[in-house]
Amino acid sequence: MIICHDVHKHFGGFHAVDGVSLEIPAGKITGLIGPNGAGKSTLFNVIAGLYPPTSGRVTMGGEDITGLPPHELFAKGLLRTFQIAREFSSMSVLENLMMVPGNQIGESLWSTWTNRSGIAREEERLRAKAEDVLEFLTLTHLRDERAGTMSGGQKKLLELGRTMMVDARAVFLDEVGAGVNRTLLKTIGDAIVRLNKERGYTFCVVEHDMDFIARLCDSVIVMAEGKVLARGAPAEIIRNEQVIEAYLGTGLKNRVVAAGPAVLGATAP
């Protein structure tokens, strides 16, 4: 579905992304892992239109989307979340969801004078959809609370809910588990799996928690020093000595090969 063709992103002499070619298949959950500074978030930002690539191409469904701004990619169904949630803190949880769809009738000053009934109908439709999203994410009890009072994990669920308010084709999740307790992380993981299985969402997940990655992902891509180091099923990646060395260094590699997925997740904050 989304293919990176020899993508580079340089900041001066620093090659944050250095010739990455990879594919994120439609209808699958793909993990993107690597040690800190591997270039994962920079690649996300290039794909999502926050950074133009220095060179290379990005396509989605065969269409060249290289360098398109985020609002155009949003309209095409490519969405991303951020490691630090970006809610409208003074608005209610329900209102945060209702704000998401673009080109609402009420955004036009002329329509506020001439089409009040149309605005009311659209608002009722968006409210009903937002209520369904809250029920799906088990956040109904927080519908009228200010979003700024939510816990970190609840804010991550709210960000996931925003993707459900539009016709998302591909969703990029940047460290969705960062700062989230285990109970809420399971809830988030369950929601991602349901969206994938029941609604056909395509996900790409950047995450350090390898237990979470192993539970969710169909395949995993590993980056190190701006390049793709390895790719494969989670079980293969966890045992890949090159991957372990990239996380822990040569000196510790042999001590942890048999220690399981938690070892990789524990090496990065």
Task: Describe it.
The chain is an alpha/beta fold and 269 residues long. It has two domains: 2-86 and 168-238, Rossmann fold, CATH 3.40.50; 88-149, no CATH class. 41% of the residues lie in helices and 22% in strands. The protein has twelve helices and ten strands. The strands form two sheets. Strands 6-7-8-3-9-10 form a six-stranded mixed β-sheet, with helices on both faces. A hairpin with a 2-residue loop joins strand 4 (55-60) and strand 5. The longest helix is centred in the middle third of the chain and has 21 residues, at 116-136. The chain starts with a strand and ends with a helix. Residues 250-258 have low confidence and may be disordered.
Strands of the biggest beta sheet: in what spatial order?
6-7-8-3-9-10
Shape: globular
- Helical/strand content category: alpha/beta
Task: Summarize model confidence as the mean pLDDT.
Answer: 85
Rg: 20 Å
Can you name the CATH architecture of the largest domain? 3-Layer(aba) Sandwich
Based on DSSP secondary structure assignment, what is the total number of beta strands?
10
Low-confidence segments, given as residue ranges, are 250-258
Topology:
Elements: E1 2-11, E2 14-24, E3 29-33, H1 40-47, E4 55-60, E5 63-64, H2 70-75, E6 78-80, H3 93-98, H4 109-114, H5 116-136, H6 152-164, E7 170-174, H7 182-199, E8 202-206, H8 210-216, E9 219-224, E10 227-232, H9 234-238, H10 241-248, H11 250-256, H12 262-265
Parallel strand pairs: 3-8, 3-9, 6-7, 7-8
Antiparallel strand pairs: 1-2, 1-4, 4-5, 9-10
